[in-house]
Amino acid sequence: MKKLVSLLIRYIPRKYLQRFAHHGLKVASLFYQGKGVECNVCGKHFRKFMPYGRNPARENALCPNCLTLERHRLMWEFLKEKTDFFIKPKKVLHIAPELCFIPHFEKMSHLDYITGDLESPLAKVKMDVHDIPFGSGTFAVVFCNHVMEHVDDDSRAMSEIYRVLKPGGWAIIQSPQDLSRETTYENPNITDPKEREKHFWQSDHVRLYGRDYGQRLKQAGFQVTEDDFVMKLPEEKIKQHAFPAEEIIYFCEKK
């Protein structure tokens, strides 16, 4: 199963996976029935989660019912425990929206929820994160996860998110990170997909963030809290929901 998942992710374009993968996973979920883990987003239980990822696929990662990964389940828990997102009215922009979140957020009557992306078939608004087509101070919340490692100019994209936030608004902007690196690694001369995968972990990545990621967000104007939320959770809860072991939540506020 791990090899099959790796091949599918590697060779099938993401837009097709987003549109069709959940149908096949509904069938696969029958083989994962059990009580070993719980998805805190959809509430389903399984003996374990499915593998997911490249070179090689990670064990116990993907919820076969709603397609959450470790980072999605952690973000949901963070929103529930440390924000008023599920309680107070908010205008929300979700950039590169994850399928696992969309049906839940769309059902929340207190949210004015807008999805946007340049290519994703899941997004309602076609938009480039370098030039977001909304006025300054439009949104109370912006989500933009695993996007900055793909874009040509991450400084401009971060500044655009800052611009469209209201004063007092906040964003969660997550990206893959190599915490062993002090500084972000970029080399615009690396354009070959195989070389990009070798250097940046994936063929469509153009940089690999280091521990300076929060500083780059601050340069866009944000007040950034680098929250080690998961490291403060009980071990049994981490195992129950298969949260990532070390992910830092980048909570970005516009004061």
Note down, in words, how this protein is organized:
- The model has no long low-confidence stretch (mean pLDDT 92).
- By secondary structure, the protein is of the alpha/beta class.
- The chain contains eight helices and 13 strands.
- The chain folds into two domains: 2-68, no CATH class; 71-253, Vaccinia Virus protein VP39 (Rossmann fold, 3-Layer(aba) Sandwich).
- 35% of the residues are buried.
- The protein has a seven-stranded mixed β-sheet with strand order 7-6-5-8-9-13-12. The protein has a two-stranded antiparallel sheet with strand order 1-2. Strands 3-4 form a two-stranded antiparallel sheet.
- It is globular and about 45 Å long.
Condensed summary:
By secondary structure, the chain is an alpha/beta fold. Helix content is about 30%, strand content about 20%.
Using DSSP, what is the number of strands? 13
CATH class of the largest domain: Alpha Beta
The general outline is globular
Per the CATH scheme, the topology name of the largest domain is Rossmann fold
Order of helices and strands: HHEEEEHEHEEEHEEHEHEHE
| Low-pLDDT sequence parts | none
* CATH architecture grouping of the largest domain: 3-Layer(aba) Sandwich
**Going across the major beta sheet, what is the strand order?**
7-6-5-8-9-13-12
Distance between the termini: 47 Å
Binned, the helix content reads 25-40%
Within CATH, the superfamily of the largest domain carries the name: Vaccinia Virus protein VP39
Count of separate structural domains: 2
**Structural class of the helices, strands and pairings?**
alpha/beta
